[in-house]
Specification:
This protein is mainly α. Helices cover 73% and strands 2% of the residues. Helix 3 packs across helix 12 and helix 12 runs antiparallel to helix 13.
Length: 295
């Protein structure tokens, strides 16, 4: 590697390797090794009394595919993503456009909308559980109803989705703001001269030129929604009758791997989810080439 380098180049290369080494070691230890180990675990069964792993081939995959609970959890995860992703993006885009204008208190409003991102998930869960409480919750008191927001299987997944939208709006909004500030103002000035309304400018200038940012957010939020766990874990109690209709596939993995101690089956669930996400990401990448604005 260093054969054809001068002493100065060798010194620079060594210092460069020294600086990137901590990051590379961190990636190997915290990312690459867990992925490889998870795939290996998916072909194994935990030995009796937790002693080692027993190779069982594709038996775990067969069980996962045949288990209706797997497909129900995957459906729950997709239903959550259907709520969180589009609504979180649309609302964030509207807020970003409004807060990109010169208005009084703009920085304050940006901070307020971003606050949910810096709140502790446990605190968020406690507040929303109180809001949704059937007997004493703020929502039922305001609406004068007795709706079981998070314990009715028919609407619990929607209630969880609302929390997800509320939690992610600030993050999406900041990304949209950065994208909006990259759009040259000349386009809008020319549109004003031509007499285009703000609504026409939004659909003819803002949306097309913001498409790279929008597509990035869409992809990352789909992946984030499909791997949701902490929100459901903290909001939905284990005794909740609606849990089966709400739990995500990562929540199901947690139950099997850490509660039941069946790490092989749990790892298989994660690998199946990974394959699903990879296929979906590939499809999105193909769509991106056709619909995203290219400079």
């Amino acid at each position: 590697m260093f054969k054809n380098m001068s002493p100065k180049e060798k010194s620079e290369a060594k210092w460069g390797l020294a600086f990137v080494a901590p990051t590379m070691i961190g990636l190997i230890v915290l990312n690459f090794y867990p992925i490889v180990n998870t795939i290996y675990q998916s072909f194994c069964k935990t030995g009796d009394f937790g002693r080692g792993n027993t190779f069982v081939g594709l038996a775990n995959y067969q069980r996962v595919i045949q288990n209706p609970e797997t497909w129900q959890s995957l459906l729950n995860t997709i239903k959550y993503a259907v709520i969180e992703v589009p609504f979180g993006i649309i609302i964030a885009l509207i807020l970003a456009v409004l807060l990109n204008k010169k208005i009084a208190g703009r920085s304050v409003y940006r901070t307020i909308f971003f606050l949910p991102m810096v709140c502790a998930p446990a605190a968020v869960a406690m507040v929303w559980k109180w809001l949704y409480n059937t007997q004493f919750g703020l929502l039922n008191n305001i609406l004068h109803t007795k709706v079981a927001w998070i314990s009715d299987p028919k609407i619990a997944w929607i209630s969880i989705g609302v929390i997800g939208v509320w939690s992610i709006i600030g993050y999406n909004m900041v990304l949209f703001l950065s994208g909006l500030q990259e759009i040259p103002g000349d386009y809008y000035e020319a549109a004003d001269i031509d007499g285009a309304s703000e609504l026409r400018q939004f659909f003819s200038i803002t949306i097309p030129l913001l498409s790279p940012t929008t597509f990035f957010i869409v992809q990352t939020r789909i992946i984030g929604a499909l791997t949701i766990f902490d929100l459901m874990f903290m909001v939905m109690d284990k005794t909740n009758v609606a849990l089966k209709k709400v739990q995500s596939i990562v929540y199901l993995f947690y139950q099997y791997a850490f509660t039941n101690g069946n790490k092989g089956y749990g790892a298989t669930l994660v690998v199946v989810l990974l394959i699903f996400i990879l296929i979906l990401t590939w499809i999105l990448q193909q769509v991106e080439k056709k619909v995203v604005y290219q400079n």
